[in-house]
Amino acid sequence: MEELNTGNTAWILASAALVLLMTPALALFYGGLTRAKSVINMMMKCLVAIGIVSVVWILVGESIAVGEGTTPFFGSFTSLFGTPDAIDQVVGLNGVPSAVWTAFGMMFAIITVALIAGAVADRMKFSAWVIFATAWVVLVYCPVAYWVWNSGGWIKEWGVLDFAGGTAVHVNAGAAALGLAIVVGRRIGWKDGNFAPHNLPLVLLGAGLLWFGWFGFNAGSAFAADGFAGLAFLNTQVATAAAVLAWLLVDRIRGIKPSIIGGCSGVVAGLVAITPAAGLVSPLGAVAIGAVAGVICPFAIGLKHKLGFDDALDVVGLHMVAGYWGSISLGLFAVEEAAGVNGLFYGGDASLLGKQTAATGVVLVYSALVAFVIGLILKYTIGIRISEEEELAGIDASEHGEAGYDLPVNGNTSVDAPVAAGEPEKVSA
């Protein structure tokens, strides 16, 4: 057993808290992007993800994702029901207690599940979401985390790199969002309706808090308070900055005025893209990774209209696409001093690029298919979507009996007043 390292322990505890902050930040970001009559539902989906995943992680999730398995596909159940190592105060990797590692891993699982919610804004039953989130974290997130990060996982053994979750978190969540959105179906009036975000300051606040929390997400994944944490911190900042500038430049070229929506989307694209590479590339490589994400993601988002699926808040175009780019970018920009192998642009061969592309593709297909199947089961059992009348009136009133804003209607206020709940959606982005 290692000796307790108080510096590393303090850093991982702080990082875990920062990663937890990302889920309320996501609730603000997603909530601002929806219409006023859907903001409560979106925030509740994020909130309940914290509750569900925290309990599932202790009961079974950590065992599947982290346990020392005898197969390359999932861990053993040595830490089932209460993590005995945490109770016994066992000190593990880098002098950090097992309880701290349990908490850190839990926060990653929480944000991954919450990300999916944005794809089904306005129309998915809250009860169906609760069941979906519970099933998906057990059947998909935990096994994939084992594949990618556990020394016995088949992706890890293959030599595939994922510093902080480009494959295990973002491609995983984005692909699940795609599968679930297809089952749930398009919103009423999707192609010609007014779905403008109702609260842009809320969007900016959420994006800013996501950016802040992401330093715990990426730099914390160095697993120690050391130079790699510093490199991941620095790369996270410059990649995100480059993505914002690139996104706004692309918008300018396309004749779109600089906007909060574009800038904040660039923030998320850059954060996602650098996640798998944060501690494995140079700062110049990080700038390139972020800039490319800022260029490709606006066009990826536009594909949903051509392909006909309704990803309400662009989880696919941001998380799946930027995450995939970030993963394969390691095959180009990885540096041996940090990653143990060079990418193509630093004198390496194409083997790493091929492995990154193939393994990430497997995760994408697996997550999308399982999410699709879970969605179908829900659709034909308890039902997955609210009624047309409820959707038109607003999901907040039908599913939660609340309104995000208690606005006056003829001198009165009421959470059930559809005019009041829906009025802010007229604000143009």
From TrEMBL:
The lineage of its organism: Bacteria, Bacillati, Actinomycetota, Actinomycetes, Glycomycetales. The chain crosses the membrane at residues 12-30, 42-60, 99-121, 128-149, 169-188, 200-217, 229-248, 260-278, 284-303, 315-335, 358-378. It is a multi-pass membrane protein. InterPro entries: Ammonium/urea_transptr, Ammonium_transpt, Ammonium_transpt_CS, NH4_transpt_AmtB-like_dom. It is found in: Cell membrane; Membrane. It comes from the Bacteria. Residues 404-429 are annotated as: Disordered. PANTHER family: AMMONIUM TRANSPORTER MEP2 (PTHR43029). Belongs to the ammonia transporter channel (TC 1.A.11.2) family. It comes from Glycomyces mayteni. Residues 10-405 form the Ammonium transporter AmtB-like domain. Keywords: Ammonia transport, Membrane, Transmembrane, Transmembrane helix, Transport. This is Ammonium transporter.
